[in-house]
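Q: Unconventional myosin-Vb, please. Structure only.
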Amino acid sequence: MSVNELYTKFTRVWIPDPDDVWKAAEIVRDYKEGEPVLHLKLEDDTPLEYPVGPKRNPLPFLRNPDILVGENDLTALSYLHEPAVLHNLRVRFLESNHIYTYCGIVLVAINPYEQMQIYGEEVITAYSGRNMGDMDPHIFAVAEEAYKQMARSNLKS
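A: Structure for Unconventional myosin-Vb:
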């Protein structure tokens, strides 16, 4: 697939922003390779001519489809780059209050800087004996998986 096919009208992208780190935008005119600007509009409909090229900015990162926003495993995202990861973690934390997110077998945790009622006996019981991925990401799922792998290794030796 060529660059021309990816950066077409209505394609959503991420552009760097000094205040928000990354800002969402949408392409309003098909980009042709070699053009000095990418014609965008920001989420508030502000038009923007975003300079691109070898001596300027590279083409912006592509956004994931809305259906993938808030995924509990980052490896399920179509595009896995800094703005996609940060946006997904932000959505999971701010909209759903989920502090844990998987990235494959790695657990990403956001410190909420407050006490959360997600470590009680009933939560331990809920994750006990379950496979990682059966339930929402949680430190107890990782611990259960580690315990099962350790027990399996001991049986083999």
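A: Brief note, in case it's useful. Residues 66-156 form one domain.
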